[in-house]
Specification:
By secondary structure, the protein is an alpha/beta fold. It contains 12 helices and 23 strands. It has helices spanning about 5-30, 45-50, 60-75, 150-160, 185-190, 210-215, 285-290, 310-325, 330-340, 350-355, 395-415, 430-435, and strands at about 80-85, 95, 110-115, 140, 165, 170-180, 195, 200-205, 220-225, 230-235, 245-250, 260-265, 295-300, 305, 345, 360, 370, 385, 415-420, 445-450, 470-475, 485-490, 500-505. Strands 6, 7, 8, 9, 12, 13 and 16 form a 7-stranded mixed β-sheet that branches. A 7-stranded mixed β-sheet has the order 14-23-22-21-20-19-15. Strand 22 (about 485-490) and strand 23 (about 500-505) form a beta hairpin. Helix 1 (about 5-30) packs parallel to helix 4 (about 150-160). It is globular. The protein starts with a helix and ends with a strand. The relative contact order is 0.12.
Length: about 500
Amino acid sequence: MTNRAAARAKYGAGGWRQIRAAVTALVKADAARGITTRLIALDSAADARKVGAAQISAVADVAGTKALIDQIFTAWDPAYLMLLGGPELVCLVNLQNPLWTGDPQDDPDQFIPSDLPYACPTPLTFAASAYRGPTRVVSRMPDLTGVHDCGALLTQLDLAATARTMIRLSPEPVFAVSAKVWQVSTRKSIAGLPDVSGVVNTSPAEGPSWTKNQFAPRLHFVNCHGAEFDPDWYGQATPSNWNLPTALAAKNLPGLAGQVVAAECCYGSAHWPPSAAGGQAGLAMTYLINGAAGVFAATTVAYGPASTNNYADVMCRLFGEEVLNGASLGRAVLAARQRYVAGQPFIDPTDVKTLAQFQLLGDPSAVPFQMPDGGSPPAGRRRRSVVDPPKASAATLARRVTLTAVGTALDQTILASTPEALPQAAIDRETLVGLVGRELPSDLAIRSFGTERTERTERAAGGVPAERSPRVHVAFVPAGRQRPPSLVLVREQPGADPEVRVVVRR
């Protein structure tokens, strides 16, 4: 799905013809895989009539775009939806960040640019907590923002049309890169992946000059710092050392062959023009242009602890696990989102942001790994076999039905925290210090969050009165000479001891 007029305006009539030809080639390749692919132009009245929807003209028409996508799923129930182009062709939805206080020193993101609403049947709202029950497979194949050469998009379309699947090895090698300060957390993430091998490379002192052999594994897992309008990802030695060395540099990426990237880095999938970074495209786009099959990363500041797993760690690990077990990239994202939500008795504001900010860039139908005939690969299998992607089957349809049912159930039963419920902090600094077990700065900004209660989620509360529902207290700890900016979260549930989480910006 794309906006034809916007593409013509950006790339000219000749560029649009090239894009259409590349899409036609992908449609033909998909047909050989058992997938019927259609191109929908958001601004085409004829295309909109096919699904009983209204056309839109302005790319910024979020409500119209969401309504048309909802109607596509009502009329056709597609297995995959791929948004063709970045935000200049198909808009993202700017969701309200529940962690936003108005002070960028707390959480700097007022909004979360997100494709998550398109993956949910929920009517359009800008409250991110409403989208906790995704049921649809949605991805985005981006073009380069601010660039009037469609070559980046054509490259990705060609790679999608010629994509191949690899038979899973045992163990499957993984290229893992971590800021040294988070190496314990990253090792736990890698240990949670099924049947993989590979060390966790740390920055400092490793990188950014990695060898082609180091880049060769099909799955890349990155837990480093990222920044807006910056084409590189960075390491860190210690919490108090803010001399951040480059861990991965976009200009150093070699040619790739279908790699899949799960990146916890802040702004890892943000869309911005290369001109904002001296002409260098960001790492996510460079990965895709250089031959990667997909990148799963966050559009805004992401969070995770230094030595345990939460938030971005869990989301990326779940995605990697699904991919390694043979899922298409799009199904891996949907299953990871659902498993993330299902793993929580309720979702707190940082869960809400994590769920909304991670998006898939690439063809959602791509299947990077396939188990050999007979199930699991034999131990010690080292020989790599490349095959055509598996064809759609009755099992594919059965999985879709199950995923739809799971997402619907999550939306109806999982409680979400909302900042509107408790506008005043319901915990003081002294109590917070006692729970955390260490001294905290005196200039803490603390917000308390109640639990959203709706008719659909009332049953999930199990008859607990609203005043005894779970609560979350978030303390924003500013950066200091000996500390990074971080969040201290206290999650309270009736009948259980408070759970304390300390997380830092990725």
